[in-house]
Amino acid sequence: MNHDFIEALEKGDLETIRKIPKADLHNHFVLGGSREFIKDKTGYEIYPITSPLNSMREMDAWSSNYIGNRFNTPEGRRLLIEATFVQAKLDGVKVLEIGEDVWGLGEFFQNDIKELINAFQEANNRVAPEIELRLQIGLSRHCSIDYLMECLSHFWGHKEFYSIDLYGDELAQPIENFVPIYEKAAENGLVLKAHVGEWGNAQDIITAIEVLHLDEIQHGIAAIQDRKAIDYLVENNIRLNITPSSNFLLGRVKDLKTHPIATLYRSGVDVTIGSDDILIFDSDVSKEYLRLYQCGCLTAVELDDIRKNGLRTTWKN
Ligand SMILES: [Zn+2]
User: What is the model's pTM?
Assistant: First the structure.
């Protein structure tokens, strides 16, 4: 038990919370950067949303207002990678799982996989060498499988990658379509992850694990709807990387106090706390821990246990 962490939560001492090691295993680096760093480098002010969105159209409006095409260049992409390491360092993140969407390889790295890998590793070494980078391959769920397979042909066989993740519109196409990709990812020794159970339901979580043989799930909070799904997560040792402020601000949960993370954790599910999109949700992991404590969702001792759990690997190979 880390008494400094527990005491810092009890006192609302964010600065001390920031100094204590944490993991962020659910971070989309494009929106994971430090606001101050981005403003400093570009002059752009990016404000987070502060009340729950009523529709994804509002999310799109936020994106076009603050992000738009401003960073859609190789230099812009690198700036966002660097901003994410700056932010993670300030936040005391010691294990950071981030990576590029497969389409970004052609768009920002001239289809040169070594250049892509190097962009992340170089920023890691220069800005925050103390952070363990777990490099991820990212897939958007609306893309066709043929297109994704074509993009992925550049990624396979590169041992620098730690995991693969599927995100975007959870309802865009059936999870079964992704079986060939996840079979290949398993052959490549990657940790298998997908965004499930954020917009979908408890059965979607079980199905996704069964058909893709997932190790970890991004969100998975819909498991709360069905005891069977919770038991399934525990029995199969599936980790959920949960992002509370994002869930609240996207209207997935009523409030933080009753967030499903408490029941999931107390039922024995392996949970971690991540940021999702810091620039939108103002959700640095240190703030997420403090918010969950202050609203009474989890106790300081429980939050310390979750913090330590996040630093533990689930790497199976
Ligand atoms: Zn996410």
Answer: 0.96
